[in-house]
Amino acid sequence: MMHRLQVKSTAEQLYHQSWINRQQKAFLDMFVCASQQVTPSECFERTNRLEATHFIDGYKILNYHDSKFGEFLKFLLDNPGFVGNVIAIGEKNGVPNVPEVISTLIQSVFGNCILQEDETSMLHVLKSLLEHQLATCEDPRRMLRRGTCAFSIAFKQVFDMVFSAKLFLTAALHDPVMRLLMEDEWFYDIDPGKALVRFPPHERQRRFGEPGTDQYKAKLAKYRTTIVEKLVLMATRFITSIKNNMHCFPQSLSWIVSQVRDNMLYFASKKLVKKCIPT
Hints:
By secondary structure, this protein is an all-alpha fold. The chain contains 14 helices and no strands. Helix 1 (2-33) packs antiparallel against helix 2 (40-51) and helix 5 packs parallel to helix 7 (116-135). Helix content is 77%, strand content 0%.
C-alpha cells in the first residue's frame, strides 16, 4: 500500500512538473517569435511565477462534481477519433482559440504524452485530424507547409514533448550544429553581393582589395568558391549524421508520417478517378 502511494505521489509530481515545463516552453516561444512584445524580464518573471505554482486537487474545488469531470476526461482519452473529429469541425466552422484548445487537451487529457498509452492516443487524434482535413483540402501539401491547420499545430506540440524525438534530434544534430557554431568567422551566403554587405568597408578593402580591379574580382570569386565548398561540407555532415542515427528515429513519428503519405496518396487517387470519369 505504501509503495502504491509513493508511485501515485511521484506520478503527480511528474505531471505537475511537465505542465510547468510546457508553460515555460510556451513563454520561450512567445519571446523568440515576438521579442518586440515580450521582454526578457517579463519572460523571466512569468517563469519564476510558474516555479511557485501550487496545485490543488480537483475534488477540493469541484466537490461531488469531480467524478463527473473525471468521467468526461476519461471519455475523451478513450475516444481520440472523436476528439480529432470535434477539433476539425470546430476549426472548419471558425471556432476561436483552436490552438489553445489543442494545447489544453494535450496537457490535461493526454498528460503531455508522458506515458506511452497517452502518446498512442494522441497519435490517433492526429490521424483523425489528418483524415478530416485532407479530405476537404484541394492542396494538402500547401496546407501542411503553412503549419496553421489544427493537424500541424497539434503535430508540433506533440513532438515538442515526445522524448524519443528529442533523443533523435540530439543524437543526429548535436555534432554538425556544434561544428557550424565553431565556424563563426564565415558568412554563408552563396550570393557574393549579399556576402559583401556583411563586411564593414575597411574589412572589405582588406579582404578583396579595390573594387573593380582584376584582383578584387579574383578574390571575390575565390571567396564564393570557398563558401560553396563549406556549405557542401556542412550539408554533408548534417545528412551523414542524420543517416547514422536513423536507428533511433521515433517510431511514433514514423507512423504518423506514413499516415500522411497514405492519406495523401488515397485522396490524390480519388481526385484522379473523379477527373477521369465524366459525371
